[in-house]
Amino acid sequence: MTDTPPEDLIEEEPSGPRAAKIAIVGRPNVGKSTLFNRLAGKKLAIVNDTPGVTRDRRETSGRLRGRDLLLMDTAGFENAKGEKLEARMRAQTEAAVIEADVCLFVYDARIGVSPLDRIFAEFVRKSGKPVVLIANKCESRASDAGVTEGYSLGLGDPIEVGTQYRHGRA
Q: How many other CB atoms are found less than 10 A from the CB of residue 18?
């Protein structure tokens, strides 16, 4: 009798680094699901102009520049507590931030930074996670002032994109 475990019980070492977990977060209707679909390379999330269409977190694998990713699309961040649907959506979004290796914080540059963006940016900052600030909906000059407002969130330099029309880096 040997002390060697049977072959089927030996766990193999992963062949490479694990996939980076990327949480796509922000308030409702800023383009998170569209960005998720673009990064995934296929339409997985429902995209609609009505806020609150995404209610649960959705995950998929993807690749970016040869690196494996686990993408997490989240419901819009709402300033709600208790048992309401919006509070459960907030809890799911906060959990995604905690689990993520990196957060893509998306805001609507046409509208600019809202009070809700500021509340959520504070939560993301306090999480200590690396953040990429995405100024979305930058298809025209109408977003210029909103892009500049993004600096006030304290999350770094905004990257200008227009996910719906594939403008910028998205």
A: 9
